[in-house]
Design brief:
Elements: H1 12-27, E1 38-42, H2 49-60, E2 64-68, H3 79-86, E3 92-96, H4 100-107, E4 114-118, H5 124-137, E5 145-149, H6 154-166, E6 169-173
Parallel strand pairs: 1-2, 1-3, 3-4, 5-6
Helix pairs in contact: 3-4, 5-6
């Protein structure tokens, strides 16, 4: 069992394994590998694309979704109590929550996978899927130069993480004072 909180937690072989699985699922359209599985989703009302892709993907693979607003995690109940209850009924949790520490808090006591669907710190699923899509339409995607223009946002930081893991050429272009400050 593995959580997906940050790309920093993955190795190059793990990312390549994810991409091979995506290829396999694409070739075997109609696979129901999630049949009998239930996923709890925590998404804000403003999330349309990310929520839609997770819900559709889970359903297309035979699974079920139960949706809660991400504000549900803002109540006073301890996150360890929340996840202890959820894992009695679900097989995985997908969370889009700006406060990354709440997503991390869920993982501390969880025996089921937790996936970070976006936080203010990072956006691992989007960047994994962006790079995967690029690899399908561009030859020699590792030889390209990747550039992010703008302040060091969750998207920028996650592209920097992926670039470090996959040894991609990555540049961050921004006004002085908005640099990534990436270690």
């Amino acid at each position: 069992m593995m959580h997906l909180l940050s790309l920093k937690d993955l190795t190059r072989p793990q990312i390549m394994k994810i991409y091979r699985l995506a290829d396999k699922l694409t070739l075997h359209n109609g696979s129901k590998i999630l049949k009998g599985k239930t996923f709890i989703l925590f998404f804000p009302q403003t999330s349309i694309r990310t929520r839609l892709t997770f819900e559709k993907g889970i359903k297309d693979l035979g699974g079920e979704c139960i949706l809660f607003p991400s504000e549900t995690l803002d109540k006073e109940e301890k996150l360890e109590d929340v996840i202890q209850y959820i894992q009695n009924w679900a097989d995985g949790v997908i969370v889009r929550q700006s406060d990354f520490s709440k997503i991390q808090g869920l993982t501390e006591q969880s025996s089921i996978p937790i996936i970070n669907a976006m936080s203010s710190e990072n956006h691992p699923c989007e960047i994994l899927s962006d790079y995967y899509s690029i690899s399908k339409i561009r030859k020699n995607e590792r030889g390209h130069v990747y550039t992010f223009v703008g302040p060091a946002t969750n998207i920028c930081r996650t592209w920097a993480d992926l670039s470090k893991i996959l040894d991609l050429k990555f540049y961050h272009v921004c006004k002085a004072g908005y640099e990534i400050g990436y270690e």
